[in-house]
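User: Can you write out an input/output pair for a complex, sequences first and structure second?

Assistant: Here is one pair. Inputs:
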Amino acid sequence: MFEAAEVGHKIRKAEYETLVPQLRVDLVNAQYDLRQADFPVIIVIAGNDRAGRNDILRKLHEVMDARFMQTNALGPPTEEELERPRFWRYWRRLPPRGRIGIFLGAWVGALIRERFDSTLNPMQVRQQIDHIRRFEEHLVNDGALLLKFWLHLPKQELKKRLKQARKHPERGWQVDTEDWEIYSRYDKVLPIAEQVVRETSTGEAPWHVVESTDPHYRNLHITRTILESLTRRLTQPQAVVSPSGNGQVVNTITEDDPTILDRVDLSKKLPRAEYRAQLRTYQAQLNRLTRQAREVGLASVLVFEGWDAAGKGGVIRRLITAMDPVNFQIVPIAAPTEEEKAHHYLWRFWRHLPRAGRVLIFDRSWYGRILVERIEGFASEPEWRRAYSEINAFEEQLSEHGVLLMKFWLHIDADEQMRRFQARLNTPYKKYKMTEEDYRNREKWRDYELALHEMVQRTSTEYAPWHLVAANNKPWARVEVLKLHCRQLKRRLG
Amino acid sequence: MFEAAEVGHKIRKAEYETLVPQLRVDLVNAQYDLRQADFPVIIVIAGNDRAGRNDILRKLHEVMDARFMQTNALGPPTEEELERPRFWRYWRRLPPRGRIGIFLGAWVGALIRERFDSTLNPMQVRQQIDHIRRFEEHLVNDGALLLKFWLHLPKQELKKRLKQARKHPERGWQVDTEDWEIYSRYDKVLPIAEQVVRETSTGEAPWHVVESTDPHYRNLHITRTILESLTRRLTQPQAVVSPSGNGQVVNTITEDDPTILDRVDLSKKLPRAEYRAQLRTYQAQLNRLTRQAREVGLASVLVFEGWDAAGKGGVIRRLITAMDPVNFQIVPIAAPTEEEKAHHYLWRFWRHLPRAGRVLIFDRSWYGRILVERIEGFASEPEWRRAYSEINAFEEQLSEHGVLLMKFWLHIDADEQMRRFQARLNTPYKKYKMTEEDYRNREKWRDYELALHEMVQRTSTEYAPWHLVAANNKPWARVEVLKLHCRQLKRRLG
């Protein structure tokens, strides 16, 4: 497929130099407009022309304002990165809306390298290609302008350059031992690169394969493509993206049907004495298990969702009581910060992912997208509809990395909730927990039930099932969560 | 000094239990008010009672809202942390205004451990104590409510606990092999701990040494202290802090005196041909040197400041042209984000510090505090006055860690600036760089000269001198910066 980039595209220096000044004016102006826009620009520059990659990067620094542009040229992953799922290192570097982020090599370069080194087998390569496609799809759906350039240098041309560099060592510092490696591996890497480029070239994020032999052609072509795409996007806002794949599924139940929540047996109870005994037993067990998990590097992510006043705080307190503070972290999810709002909504969850062996507790989570944000209209319909597959992709990566993901819905009924609301009003230190909103939410009880039913239906997976925990009786719920976490830890620790 | 915490403080369980409910009400309410306040709360819990530390932590989770509280119990530093100055791991975890951050062991615990292991000699301990004092002073000056609790457990009491844990293994999970270690090292650690606690107990950040034998006494004492301090701080805003130490120094020159800038020879020039030749030479040199630096792990931090239109962008472009994109990062400093504003002003510079072997370029920097923020009144007088010592402490830590810190002031005169402003108006893609503000700044030229004089006087140190670069002639300035960076790299690489 790269033959099309070996036809000898050229641009004369004189022509190039007459074109560049205007291009520069237009690009800087477009970049200036971008700062007020509500989408980020993500530029991927990959390919086998290492020197060309650096050269176009310099050009971009010349024709644009470096202050609103961030370059990410990543070496091998650090220890902190290796302890998280593969895409963590990319998520944490995504540019916010209004900015440009350039990735050299990026996720594709890493994949090709690992396939070449045989770190990944063909099956794993397919899986990673699938992750890349979905990752890019989610970014584009979120509004990102994603531009991917593959610089192709024919083998003969690379050889010529290497020879010249040998002849003129004073100018040859731009040629690296890495280039010699690229040359020696050329024929073996080519088919791998072709596969990856072909299969990650999608409708919403196609590759621009650029012949890299002539620097003027290459630089002009890339700069122009960036300018044109950016200008188009600034003048014609992106069409609303319809949800992809399983986004077509709609609620399979009607207003009056029972939901999956009706199957939860809310009469479950634990008498005081038994509660104390079991609490002690499971806390001791959890303490031991979390220490073992720490030693072998097994991380847990616990997600807590539930009705208002379902007792999330109390459950979490019983969990952490059993753990060493070095081993856990609680992340409460409230309204996003300005910085978080400037990114894909999953960005703020990615950034918190735990290191190996730790327990991370999310007090509310990414499920807000398809619960409160859906019901209150904070997310548009296309946004929450595509969230199911975004969430599944995210959780799949967690689980693939070996993270133990546990999701709990603490379930109470409306009467129990009202009893607790009233009790709160009589408990001075809990009063501030009550707002008008809590009462308003009660009116939407049925909407929530339907949304919850769909949530379980679509995001309860083999690797990350939903646990619907009966919580009308607090002791029962607390012990149940402890027990479930212990059981899964035991299973995973063998 | 810990004898005072061996007198047998006790509180009866019954008394404790009557006091706690009200405490809880008050604490939750105070914490609620804190959310609207403009300061963070930093709680340090250290000492030799490991189980007690965990116990009080649980209590704090019970009596406060865990959602606005972050616990930091740090193990050994990660690879990414080891590549940065010691305090990086603490800076990156500081709570924003309105929130509570709890540090277990914290910077003091690490220091005691390293002294015990003989990783640090007595001289180095003194130095680290000095860093701690200044770190805490800067946090407090910035408004943080810093509360430090040292839990002291007498040796006999620790022994008793360990024995009991052996007798009742079913409850003994809260006792750790670590506790046995603490016991065996008790007598050797005690004098080290005493020194560190004594010397880091300052007027603005005293240690509360708490007898930890009786959990009710310990928990009540700490919880009450937190409540009282927080309430006091919420009702009586902090008095304006007068600058400490060298903050007393004032400008030693008067309005008409020449400043240090007058010594810069602005007639320096480089003819075109020579410029091209030198540029090529030094870029090749810099490329080689930055690769070597990467290999041995020598990081550089380059700071660029200068008059508007002094040519910072052009200099930076010539630098990065010579480097491999994997090796450098540019951080442009504009207005701080919401998240950055919620922290000490140095926080956003700390968070960007480079990994070992990398080059980090700051396009404007922390010097904004004592230049534009001082002159425009964005920082209050006490704020910018104490910034000199804050900056020196920051840079000292960078240099102590082995980072090569280079600071450049690009100097032009007012006439040259006006020529460039006018040229910009005639260059379409530079037009947007011009604002009214640029002209207004010209009127403050003399104010800036005086501020710059003081800046050089007070922050040009042996380990991080200011380089005042003549920049009326752009080629000269570009080559000069390249040359200076090369020279320092060569010196450091030996």
